[in-house]
Amino acid sequence: MTNPLVNAFFIGRALAEGINEQVEATVSSVLSEVGKFDAEQRENLRNFTEQVQARAQQDASQTKTSTTGSNSASGSPVDLQETIDDLRAEIAQLRATLQAHRNQND
Prior knowledge:
By secondary structure, the protein is mostly helical. It has helices at 4-74, 80-105.
């Protein structure tokens, strides 16, 4: 006859080993999935970064092309600071004209 206590011990030990194997398999599976997810997200981020850089380069080249196109149409290069200064002068002149008009109506 087998001793019920010895039998319970071996059943408990087998149960613990079985649970341990299941936990190890589950943890390994979860870690594998996390690793895959991390790799996919890194790849998605890399692709997104490349797309943003490509758009920026495309926009920069289009801006350069349109600026170059306007340069060749007018026959002289466009000086950005000169254009800004001209616009500021026009704004100041318009303000002075507007103020003079307001003073006449008062």
